Amino acid sequence: MSNPLQGVVTPSEFDAAQADLTQLDSLFKILNIYDKNSLYDGFTGPDGAGATTSTWGRINIAVEGGKKLSIHSNSTRIMTCFYDTGGLVVAGGDDTSANRVLTIPANATSIRVSALKTGIDSIRICYSDTMQYSYYPFGYKAPSEGLVIPKDYTTTILSVSSALELRAILDSITDASETNRYIVTLASGIYDISACYTSGEIEALDFAGLYVPDFVKLYGIGNREDVYLKWDSITTYNKISTLNLYLHSELENLTVYAHHLRYAVHDDWVSSTNVYEKAPSDYRVIKNCHFIGYDTYMGQAYGSGYKSGCRWRFIDCIFESQNSYSSSLYMHNNFSFETSALIEFDNCWFKVMSGQLTALTLKSLTNNTTIINYLKFIGCRISEGTNIVVGEDNAPVYGAGILTKLTGYANNFGNIDVSVVVTDSEDYSSYIDLV
């Protein structure tokens, strides 16, 4: 069985672990023993001698003698030194910025690790005989592979260059399925989604905006900033979003903007029924997109309700709230859960306005399910001075407690940056494992 530190957990591994929650927890337990939240100022050299300086941070970590440690420094200078139970130096480690594997002396019980604080977000130390794969802290990564055509499915590619064409194409797709997929490519340009609809359509009680059908991907050609889907409204609408996604809708290389709507993207329309729906055998991917919500009704740029068995990945995305009162992303589980959901954020930025305290809001609906769901953050970033709130959606209506476990590494946030807000008396500290 793989571990998320070695890459993405495969759907087959995820399915196999569903029958045993202990196994599922083990699959997602972060193996990084370097906790940046426990650092104190200063550094200790390979000879055990220490010095105090605010630009360095050091930590003592309990270790098992005779094993090997894989140290991934991501080019950060790190000094190490091994100690025995009496606090005496067993062996000087090293002083280098290179990735390496160290053998723990048999009589060593701890290692003191000192590192320049500018690089602590990307340090990982775990038990391993070989070097683990490299990862990166947040940074924009332009797509390099271009449009990828799934090899295991029938895929139809359609192209549009205007908002009217986009609506017409999406409305015409009625036979998309797991084995019969569609990719709609969008040429560079501004797509005013509001211009696709009459005032009568917009004012209809059940109108919610443009829908992207199941098993359909929207793919922008060129830079994501140049493929701009927008809805700029004078009137505030509490149900309309620029785009609405189903369980298997995908987006790549786009900017989606909303003004005075519910969200830029409402990723919750699978919840129109409470019937359990099994996710397909692969991941649903939202990649290289920028979501912007300006004075939106809910406040966030992106609102999501995920379904039983969902396997979603958000890669190289920015969630941006241009509201002084809101986080950038609001996410909760839906009803009728039979199996856990897995949602991964890889190299994503949760961006809010200066003065806003919460960058990301994760809520639970507990009155119809006890299934735990897993959210993983790798190399992500929240705005400076903000936190992540994990809590209940609406305890009197949807139940108390939380069903969300957070794991991850190489982020600019850790356990200390997560606020768990609940109305019951349970201790959920073990649910947060962000090292």
Care to describe what's here?
This protein has 435 residues and is mainly beta. It has helices at residues 11-17, 21-28, 163-172, 199-203, 395-398; strands at residues 40-41, 43-44, 50-51, 56-62, 68-72, 78-83, 89-96, 100-103, 110-116, 124-127, 154-160, 180-186, 189-192, 209-212, 216-220, 227-232, 241-245, 250-252, 255-259, 265-267, 284-287, 290-294, 302-306, 311-315, 318-322, 329-333, 342-346, 349-351, 358-364, 373-378, 381-382, 387-392, 404-409, 418-421, 432-434. It is elongated, with a radius of gyration of 23 Å.
CATH hierarchy class name of the largest domain: Mainly Beta
User: How many helices does DSSP assign?
Assistant: 5
Outline: elongated
Describe the main β-sheet briefly.
Answer: 10 strands, parallel
At the third CATH level, what is the topology name of the largest domain? Pectate Lyase C-like
* SS-derived structural category: mainly beta
Rg from alpha-carbon coordinates: 23 Å
Domains (count): 2
* Order of strands across the main sheet: 11-12-15-18-21-24-27-30-33-35
For the secondary structure, the number of strands is 35
Tell me the distance between the termini: 22 Å
Quaternary organisation: single chain
Which strand-content bin applies to the residues?
Answer: 35-45%
Helix content: under 10%
Which consecutive residue ranges, at least 5 long each, have pLDDT under 50?
1-7, 271-276
Just name the CATH architecture of the largest domain: 3 Solenoid
- Nearest-integer average pLDDT: 86
